[in-house]
DNA sequence: TGAATTATCACGGTTTTCAGTGAAAACAAA
DNA sequence: TTTGTTTTCACTGAAAACCGTGATAATTCA
């Protein structure tokens, strides 16, 4: 019989880690060589055990220290032969896009059935990529809707002023805080309003909060 | 040997469900009689199989149709003999508090180790409740910090006006929309500002967004 | 180096918000 | 039935925001 495939699993939720390990240990063609809770642990292992052939790294996206996206790019950069499969809770189009651009070999949701998980793993180990139909669909939708959002980019100053506005400071206060003229801040407010397509302070504030620009 | 304990597991992420099943099927004292993806499935099963003795329901909080909190209260209401263990991703003090008040028998995080999971299950099956140290700590902190938040309650109209303000409507527009005088809306705005302890529209908007009053 | 973007400032006029103060009617709860 | 809350409306003066329409210097980047 062939030697089993060597797999690393990374997820910060130990229960999920244990569960996945338990599921995969039933598969005789798979050998789990490491389970890790952070991306850094995985990278460290790969760097130390360079002589060991690792076939696949299964990773979550949300992890402390080094998340799945960073881990993925690092692996593809340093160990291009190692395949990666992302198993994530979220179905965030942007993150999926970044991951595909970083040459992830597969992406499935934690909603996926066990059979789909095994299918994905086998496909990848066979040299094919695997993205579940749902993920493909989300990617497609993102492609189309992306064009409708022309990506508003704000300069440093604009961002700074916007934050202060959303924090309830008045024009005069912001001017004092930044050692600028009150007129300057007024210009910024005006620009921000037209740039972001909103009508007033409320709109600016909502934009700032929803984009997570505060705290 | 004793008859094994009958357990139901509910979680909308099938991978987690499979993982947990896989872990627990190693335990001989445990028999998994049902795995479900929604709370309603669990309730339906309990209602049909009334003669069957179910010892424990392990459930996530976030689930479609009927979440873990509703499921828990329903179980405690209809089937008080059935124990419940909540296994959740989130460590939200409020939800934990609601669950303890609804007589949940245990609460552990998905961060918990396998050993802790088994410990929790065994404790509960032995008639004790189990809350992990971390959860206890969060609960304690919530108790103390709760007093610092004096629970601001807004009336229907106040909420309505606040929403419209946060949606960038001017006083006049809101007045027209609600068939009220402009002065009335001004009063509401003023009251809201002092009630919520903010300074201006930005503060009101932030409050509305952060409380999830919009969508 | 030249073009584009960013950062800065200015002014007059209009609208809106903010702060203070007050009050009447409707309604629910105790 | 009294008390409290909610909903409704009104006026004033000051402050701030909003609108239009500029301009100049600094920086960045192609």
UniProtKB/TrEMBL annotation, chains A, B:
4-aspartylphosphate, modified sites: 60
Sequence ranges assigned to domain Response regulatory in this UniProt record: 6-125
Residues covered by the HTH luxR-type domain: 147-212
The keyword Metal-binding belongs to this UniProt entry's keyword annotation: no
PROSITE patterns given in the database record: HTH_LUXR_2, RESPONSE_REGULATORY
Keywords associated with the record: DNA-binding, Phosphoprotein, Transcription, Transcription regulation
Top-rank lineage group of the source organism: Bacteria
Claim: Transferase is one of the keywords in the record: no
Entry-linked SUPFAM superfamilies: C-terminal effector domain of the bipartite response regulators, CheY-like
Originating species: Winogradskyella litoriviva
Annotated InterPro entries: CheY-like_superfamily, NreC/VraR/RcsB-like_REC, Sig_transdc_resp-reg_C-effctor, Sig_transdc_resp-reg_receiver, Tscrpt_reg_LuxR_C, WalR-like
UniProt-recorded name of the protein: Response regulator transcription factor
